[in-house]
Amino acid sequence: MRIATWNVNSVRTRAERVVAWLERTGTDVLAIQETKCKEEQFPHAVFEAAGYEVAVVGLNQWNGVAIASRVGIDDVERGFLGQPGFGDPEVVEPRAIGATCGGVRVWSLYVPNGRELDHPHYAYKLRWLEALQREATEWVAASPDLPLALMGDWNVVPFDTDVWDVAAFAGKTHVSPAERDAFAAFADAGLTEVSREHLPAENTYTYWDYQQLAFPKNKGMRIDFAYASPALRARVDSVTIDRDERKGKGASDHVPVILDLAD
DNA sequence: ATGGCCATTGAAAATGGA
């Protein structure tokens, strides 16, 4: 089975491209982030025509996550227990959706950006990661043999070598020790970030800004990851970052991260 | 060629992204 995660930066703009990619690569399950639409605006028909069922959560033009699967999609959960909200009035944003697909419990996650270190969004980001880590700890403890994947756009650069020039990020989000600690803490829940295990090379990126020729200059960031429970980790044969998907007109600024699983 | 922001809302300019 092949499962993947991809921040598509608007699913309405890129539905045909995403589904063509799913079919071409033979991907069974895709965790999608930044759908940027309400559930009723989601291009359900494009996915269904290709044989994918979809579970969606979306409130407006911001955020939005989904899971597409051609191996079943059951026990859908929109948001996680204790998921923090943001704003006044406080809203629990559509940033997490879970479903069981082909025997794997998959979560599609879009971690808050943080904006600036002194912005309320940054404190929200840390709260959000901490709450997810707490909940993930419960999931693993409750079902230690369950294949579980926490996949998505984590908006954290775990190591200096996960960005083209860490000096350019001095005083900015994504690289702060608190964010890195919050990201690393998922290992304490018994999870392993399997893209790192299989693709340890430095300067291996999943995101390139649209501006200033970032992609041709390879000024990228590694911020899309997949944490796996022991039962899933043992089944990961290989991990691929599909860098080619950043090429050409109409690309998302993120590329897919793919996990090939043993049956 | 992989090429100097993009998507959404709403109808100009603002918001968010990272």
From TrEMBL:
Entry's cofactor comment: Probably binds two magnesium or manganese ions per subunit.
Sample GO molecular function, one term: double-stranded DNA 3'-5' DNA exonuclease activity
Site residues, Interaction with DNA substrate: 254
One Gene Ontology term from the biological process aspect of the record: DNA repair
Domain of life: Bacteria
Residue(s) at site: Important for catalytic activity: 224
Positions marked as site (Transition state stabilizer): 155
Active site: 110, 153, 254
Alphabetical keyword list: Hydrolase, Magnesium, Manganese, Metal-binding
Ligand binding (Mg(2+)): 7, 34, 153, 155, 253-254
Name of the featured protein: Exodeoxyribonuclease-3
Species: Paraoerskovia marina
PROSITE patterns: AP_NUCLEASE_F1_4 (PS51435)
InterPro entries, per database record: AP_endonuc_1, Endo/exonu/phosph_ase_sf, Endo/exonuclease/phosphatase, ExoIII-like
The keyword Metal-binding appears for this protein: yes
Lineage: Bacteria, Bacillati, Actinomycetota, Actinomycetes, Micrococcales
